[in-house]
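Hello,

I think I submitted the thiamine diphosphate job twice by accident. Can you confirm which output corresponds to this input? Input:
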Amino acid sequence: MKKGKVDKFTLTVIVENKFGVLARIAGLFSARGFNIHSLAVSETEDPTISCMTIVVIADEKILEQIKKQLNKLIDVVEVIDLTNRQYEERELVLINIKVTSKTKDDIMRVIHTMGAEILDVGKNTITIEETGDTKKINSIIELLRPFGIKEVVRTGKIAIQTEGEKREN
Amino acid sequence: MQLTGSQILLECLKKENIDIIFGYPGGQVIPIFDKLYDEKAIKLILPRHEQGAVHAADGYARATGKVGVCLATSGPGATNLVTGIATAYMDSIPMVAITGQVKTHLIGNDAFQEADITGITRPITKHNFLVKDVKELAKTMKEAFHIARTGRPGPVVVDIPVDVQNALTEFKYPKEVHMRSYNPKYKGHTGQIEKLAKAIANSQKPVIYAGGGIILSNSSEELTTFVRKTQIPVTTTLMALGVFPETDRLSLGMPGMHGTAYANHAIQESDLLISIGSRFDDRVTGKLELFAPKATIAHIDIDPASVSKNVEVDIPIVGCAKQILTELNKIVKKADTEEWLKTIDCWKKKMPLTYSKDNKLRPQYVIEQIDEITKGEAIIVTEVGQHQMWAAQFYNYTKPRTFISSGGLGTMGFGFPASLGVQLGCPDKKVFVIAGDGSIQMNSQELATAVIENIPVKIAILNNGCLGMVRQWQELFYNKRYSHTCLAKGKYCPDFVKLAESYGAKGIRITKKEDVNKAIKDSLKYNGPVVMEFVVEPEENVYPMVPAGEALHNMLHWDEPNCA
Ligand SMILES: Cc1ncc(C[n+]2csc(CCOP(=O)(O)OP(=O)(O)O)c2C)c(N)n1
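Support: Only one job matched these inputs. Its output is below.
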């Protein structure tokens, strides 16, 4: 089958909140050679159900297969492809930035401009938290990179369908 | 009244109309075996290896259409089932495999004979369960059987810790299954069905490509009606042999790597390819980019994930083959295929399946003789290798569930133990195993089971002294460098006649062509298992052959005759 353009796609996967479900999903991706970019899991308002937000890297054909194979798993209740839907996405990132007396002011300016939250200020390190869509998270990382990033921890994206206008990007 | 988990398990099996299971005991299933000791309604067949149990359960399922059930202890017992479970999974065979597990509180502690069998079998089962609470057992069994036999069938593992087997609770078997996350779709989309009917009306060179789904959905009759009504020729995959009589003019036999030349040419020339319950396996399609290049492709399948997985499909119809064929049969008309059938007749005449008909004892001849003597009424169960392909090619299958073989996984060691399940499921049928000398040695210990249980299968070993199928590839593609494919280094080993006799079975060695017929007849006269060792031409090859990765029409040693 022809190879199409590879892109990132966001799937919401509703699953039974049962023992081993995460292993089934992860196993499916590894067994079939599908690529996961990020995966976030949590309980929902219904304790018998969990919600996974999975960002996959695929072309259209493989995306189709991923959706079908996920649907085939007995514990998967629903697979929602957010690609052509309206949704909001958020990610949270924690960053340790190297700081010196020389760079401190500039770093603070970036943090304030971006609206990030400061969690800790040490002698050599500032720890911050930022939430936003992937674009925003990527840009704060890029803005801080010149100062020296020591560590980045990201949650991976979570997403929710909305009623409003389709977002552009 | 309260019952133990073991009692509940047996009650569940009875509710599912299971009267035979294949199982091997061990520490973590003793409570179940203890209850089986008094159980009149369920017969346990004791193999000599858990792999024998799982293949026998699989063979039973393939021959009868019922769910096959096997049972093994934890750890090594459970891991011995793995190959058989994977075999069943690849061919979508309904099966429930029950395993014992260490006590609930010991799970995860590397306890004696602990293996994470749900973890191990996750990618080779349709679903699996670890039952941690006896109150969940009945519901789990109900779901396991439901999942195994509905939709696209498949094996389900139920892992039951030994303390759960001993725990007490009230037994109540649920009447129905409610699973919000599992609802297979059976009915095909009407618009798509009409679209296919229209495509048939507009086609000059249609071909039906029928697969194992026809057998699994019991729609051989509907398929036959469809073929006869439309006059479209049909090729049946290894998994579908017999769903349409191969003796009919409209039958093209098997497609693919070792398929008939006329089936492969018909596919390549077709303008409409109607796939029903087949999954475009690479052994069928050859090089994908050049598969059926002129055809509009329709695909009827119960598994949406099979559709457009390998080949882009123009007319997908998701649903059960039986229902969809029934709908189609209401609206299709005879297609305009007279010219097309003449071309195919010409191909059949000029490119028949054949072999050298000299005085040597050739393996194909043995298969033809079995066909002749059994009048095509036997059930043929095969191992894996050249003999499997010859069994597919040189016996004329006319009914579903009469050719039983490991297709998807290609498991050597499957055939003989599977045949025991086949014979137990179909006691009135003549059951023949076609084996190679390599494959038979993978589970020959089951001769003990066949003798003790008096299961009268007739085992034809086509002994070429080598791992023939691999040797053939080495001959053709590796410069005849026969690296470790010789089993008989100047000396045939073991002596299969003595092997059979040591178990108390009948053994016959045949070395001459003229003795073949009598030996087969003698085997049928003997009321018990028989091993026939046919010492055949060692370097016979399976033809036609499409080398792996080649287009279907590029068969070795074939020139396309001019039939257009
Ligand atoms: C369990 C297993 N191991 C290895 C193979 C690879 N394999 C496929 S065919 C074959 C040779 C089979 O030899 P034999 O049973 O003697 O049959 P023949 O081809 O000679 O008819 C082998 C080794 C396999 N299919 N299954």
